[in-house]
UniProtKB/TrEMBL annotation:
The keyword RNA-binding does not apply. The lineage of its organism: Bacteria, Bacillati, Bacillota, Bacilli, Bacillales. Keywords: Glycosidase, Hydrolase. PANTHER family: 6-PHOSPHO-BETA-GLUCOSIDASE GMUD (PTHR10353:SF139), GLYCOSYL HYDROLASE (PTHR10353). This is Glycosyl hydrolase, family 1. It comes from Listeria welshimeri serovar 6b (strain ATCC 35897 / DSM 20650 / CCUG 15529 / CIP 8149 / NCTC 11857 / SLCC 5334 / V8).
Amino acid sequence: MTYKFPENFWWGSAASGPQTEGAADVDGRKPSIWDHWYDIEPGRFFNDVGPTNTSNFYYQYKEDIALMKQTGHNSFRTSIQWSRLIPDGIGEVNPKAVDFYNRVIDEMLANNVEPFMNLYHFDMPMSMQENGGFESREVVDAYATFAKTCFELFGDRVKHWFTFNEPIVPVEAGYLYDMHYPNVVDFKRATQVAYHTTLAHALAVKEFHALEIPEGQIGIILNLTPSYPRSQNPADLKAAHIADLIFNRSFLDPVTKGEFPADLVEIIREHDALPEYTEEDLAIIKNNIIDILGVNYYQPRRVKAKEYAAHPDAPFMPEHLFDNYEMPYRKMNPYRGWEIFERAIYDIAINLRDNYDNIPFFISENGMGVEGESRYRNADGMIEDTYRIDFIKSHLKWLHKAIEEGSNCHGYHLWTFMDCWSWANAYKNRYGLVEVDLDNDFKRTVKASGHWYKELSENNGFED
Ligand code: BGP
């Protein structure tokens, strides 16, 4: 069968500044929370590999953009590092950073790779974290100023902007589950960070729309992970509904409809965790909704009713209201420990069609991280990652079906273009269309998936 996608479909990939640029301490950049955390707790990172050098994009961007073209990209997302552009978080703009991002953007445009720019990918400048991070209302304003600075500097050439990548992740990883710095475990502080992130987003949208950039669009990138109930038993359905409210609709509703779901607010109130807010700020959220949505999808969430009550002395967690559920015989990516469930991409698209006014969206991340890929190297030195090609195809089939049924999807970006540094997992799992050899001066080699991706993009689809 032939799977053809709509005209001008975006084929490309996503990455982020902190995961690819390297050059962490040159040309005026100052530390983000990642540099600081690595300094104080290097053992928290796989094989003790930190964020200082990542994949050397800062120096090799020209070669990389040529490889983007070679692998069929018509678009590519990365992020501007706040800690590079405004090293102290507020105040002076770093001219060397402006020069670097200008060169990257111009090189992409010269190669017909459209730049999609994100403004925050888990990377709070350390100076801002010291002022309270997103618990602080002042840091919210500092972020809005940073966003406005970016639109003014680069908005003449960058048309697709995103305020945050997966804003729920710093909330859950940094303020609930002890997975990211600042390793706080506190539901109330987590809701304050989530609320302030939504407000920071809305202020950036407001600044963007005020500038009236021709053909400009602004959005946010959310990891929408459907919550599937174990069964149709009302207790399981309720558990899934709660998980959906906390992990999806907490951001999806305010950014598309301007309001937080009433039953989510109720849950937060019941657990005495309402954030501090003002009516003026709620009005900013209400009046500044997005033009386009990016959807990251990796794995489904499966949920069942709670089996046992939580320990009365344990800090409150969302999981006190539901249990995660392991479906028997689920298909797994064992390296990342994530279930592979392709149909969810269709369910997300149909949910956006039916419950979110069919908002324009694209798949902004989807991908498969695999450990030890060099064992798949062939005699010519190329990694034959057929599992990655199969993974992409099987997701695209479901996306295609959703588009045929009227969902408003404009593109597909893989995570990621070249192997990159993945936070605490460092270089454990590789996701790239292009291999990066860390033992050989960051040498780049296109994988089988990279060659296949070019055909996919040229044909605007594939046969299977
Ligand atoms: C997403 C992030 C990316 C990337 C990806 C892969 O959640 O937006 O930055 O890291 O996941 O996941 P991981 O790095 O955890 O393997």
